[in-house]
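Section 3.1 - Work completed
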Amino acid sequence: MELRHYQQKARESIQQEWQKGNTKTLLVLPTGCGKTIVFSKVIEDRVKKGERVLVLAHRGELLDQAADKLEQSTGLKCATEKAEQTSLGSWFRVVVGSVQTLMREKRLLKFPKDFFDTIIIDEAHHCLSDSYQRILHYFNANVLGVTATPDRGDMKNLGSYFDSLAYEYSLPKAIKEGFLSPIKALTIPLKLDLTAVSQQGGDFKTSDLGSALDPYLEQIADEMVRTAHDRKSVIFLPLVKTSQRFKEILNEKGFRAAEVNGESKDRAEILEDFDKGKYNVLCNSMLLTEGWDCPSVDCIVVLRPTKVRSLYSQMVGRGTRLFEGKTELLLLDFLWHTDRHELCHPSHLIADSDDVAKEMTKKIEESGVPLDLEEVQSSAEEDVVAQREEALAKQLAEMKRRKRKLVDPLQFEMSIQAEDLSGYVPSFGWEMGPPSEDQVNKLEKLGIMPDQVDNAGKASKILDRLDKRRDEGLTTPKQIRFLEQRGFNHVGKWSFEDGKKIIDRIAANGWRTPPGINPKEFKPEGENHAEG
């Protein structure tokens, strides 16, 4: 099986991290981008080296899925460590293991501590729980955690266990490169009041959410008739009884709705019938967030509001796969009214910063029609940049007076419009420490003011960006400072040659701007837009 370009890059990056001594590393791939295929290939690489590998998961379906994909893509078969099944005595070098089984001390002690050389954690955002940690601390092994796009809060938490992020492939990139379906978001003009809902474990309490949602179910069903009657929809609800009640309401409105939950005896049959088109709506109480795929789904309705971005991504991920005839995924959002808590909205799936996410949510709410997420992101980023530039102008006026020789990192970020730098928050231990002496010297040499860069992760990101810009032939920080002090705009988007030409003309004119050039409106002939 031939890997896609990002899957091959991920496979290589993971091996490199382990070679560097980062024994616990993380892979982030959006749902539908083949994370099981990637870790199957990593397993194949390790087995060829004579290693034993353990794949850990917390649900039976995930273990079965991993075993099937591993055999399909590599031909390797697995032993199982789950309930009464044991891998001890098996000659297979790969074991799929249930966390609930292996966490028991009696079971763990049957294995020598060095029995496994590599451990793979499927759905790695669960791995900070005590049950996973007990197993991970017991074995002396390299660890790979695999997860769909987590939010920065998750990354910070995961950074307390993992040493590094080996590779990340973003949702916008996957959509742009044609591996996932485009997403359109529509905010339904229904105000749903969550002010009475309490919190539990860092998110909303599901029993309270069910009660808060009940009064609105009829209206929500009417809105679905208006916006999604011709679509294949999956609806996530907080409680089984709410899910069952909503299924009945939808059927009264003319939908062909079914419901599945953990107790459904005919679950496999219902899922198969939904896949084949017997039903066009599937209601569930958070059962289908992991390990289930139906690519023809083209509408997701999240009626289980959450603050946890990885959970939100998982729900939406049930509809992002490609399917013949499917043009986009429609994501329905609501006007959730909440006092204190920042909820996940469609914008959080792709926005690089909270400012951009808020601006996107505002635009989607105001439009009243489905909007393409990437287009909204682009417009919201421009608005946020304009707001930041206004605030920055005051700072720059002060800087001009001080005639600094170095560029403030914030000016550099704004000039090149690097949203990933502006919104950067360190996740891993090493990133949070101060920049190293070597980083400080390099930044200064390249024209960036190092005392404004307050952590090693940001320093590393800026240095990587400067290397990339040099390779792409874009302007240097010193050119940016020189020209922007003279009133030229977004010099960071120009090519190095364009910057050099105008500086040479200014120098030839006695270091004054040549007549006929208005810096505010000036655009170089070959303006380079390689960097966004």
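Second construct:
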Amino acid sequence: MVLSSLSRSPHDSRRRLLHGERRLTERYAELVRLAYLVLPASLGRHRRVLAAHALVQRSLPVATPAVPAPRSPGAERDRSLRVAVVRAALAQCRRPRLWPEGARPPRLLVPRLPVVLGLRLAPRSGGAEEMALGQALSELSAPARAAFVLLHAEGLTADHAHGVLEAAGVAGARVAVREASRLGTSLGPAAAAVLTSDEFDACTLRARPTDLVRRRRRGRLAAVAVLVGALTAGGLAAAVTRPTPDPPGPYQSRPSSADLVRGGPGEWADTSRVDFTAWPARGDRVRDRALLDRALAVWADPPSGTRVVRAPGTPADPPPRAPRLLYAGSVGGRAVVVFHDGQRLVRYGESGTGVLLVLARADDADLTTAGAVALDERGGAVRYLLAPWVAESSVRDLTRPDSPARPLSVARDGVTAPVPRWTGGGCGHRPALQLRSSPVIAEHHTFLLTDLGGLTPAHLTYTPLPGHGSPSARQPREATGPAALVAWKQVGCGLDPAGGTGVRAVNAWDFAEQDLPDGGGHAVWTCARADTWRGTGDITVSLRRPGEDTRVVTRVRATAACGRFGRHLVARTHWKSPRGHWYVLAAASRAVTSLTLTGDVPATRSGHTLAVRAPENASTRVRARLDSGETLSDVGSG
């Protein structure tokens, strides 16, 4: 054994290192994604990106086997790399002893290299599905999160994932794999596609500057410090100078009106990012420093008597850096200021009755969801500030799909005339903004926004029935066509505008159609999903018939159903036919091959609709069988 070990030459060790480096380079992007997803979200996206790259780059000596195995398959070499990366990432997830639970880990726990100065790095932003998956992963334990990524991003079997976790030193590897499998079952096969999207690709990054105002201030202080140090060193060689302190951080030094970021009028046409970061500063009081300083002061520390309204999931922290000024002006005799800090919209308002501060999330907005901001609400109407890329604006009533949209008057600074709010119970007036973007960024892109009580109106979309002009993949489209407007005439009646605070977009999905018994006519089953800015979603399933009131079948809060992670659906309701007979009706999405009714009236039908005579108060449940062999329970009762 001694002779064998002595016979290994330095050349063999170097060859092994070069071979390991080549394998790591070939799989670098996948390994960085693995590390990024396993690392805790509490690090923040910038620090997670740097830590993921550092962990993978440092895995080379660990991943290189002590004994060369030139004939071993590539899978074994990949396994050693995975083990090294998972072990290092899990080590970052463990809190130091006595470190407060839930607190951000200290910086010394995060590898120091690579280092990026002057930039904040983050993967490209995804949509609501990516946000929901990120939230679900953050709620898993670190080993279960690693198991989920190994199963769905790396494509390992449960046994192989268990082996990697055990090799990485995870004591409860079997439990972690089971926990990850349960989440994978609830999310469905779409989870793998979302995991490999740009949202979680730590090698395809967006770069933004850090706080430029603070950097300039620090640069000046550093220059002064160098000059003072040089003069002192020249005059007093033995003197000991005190170090120049860092300038105060963003929470210690409140941004002033002089620090505000102000976009130019044509900036939006010269950027690939079409959201609130491209808005210019508008309004007749953008130079009113006293007003702007008051607004910033109230945001940083609301005084007693200030009414503060926060959308769900929106932090009320002071601005972390100098925010972008979007608007400052007088609207209907009231002073209004709107800021954007990269993640939130903040509206400050002064009136004779006091001060109002409204905060709402606006991260990852796009051309449509950044299309308008509510400036003033009173007298049953709303004035909006439209995005600079809106070329045409009009108002239509969703309850009158055959009536043309009416032109909406807009001032030169982008402020609209008052737009009526939703009124009346059931199906009262349902006004919606119909906006068309400038051809500079999206030719003839027309979309609908409607007020659901939030700072930004909700974007309305529509997904038609299979075979009704829809592509093979179920994709929402703008709700501006004839079929979409007819659907929204009925679906809009079931939405609750008072409970829509924080809603980003609502999609109406026609998932099934059915001929009703006893001459009941033709009906369409629709699921309206309201996605919020924080990633969760509520659904309203309804049964709608031409010329009849829409029947709300069920409402479910905080669910994946009817979204990207809930592509299959089955619902049921009790219904009275024109002849006075009671039925249990059920319908499911297109991947369902049969429906089974259990309870007081058992029955089975092939296809994806069912109608069975049953007493009015019959207790029933419905299960659907998918073409994959899986089963699915109904979402509620009617």
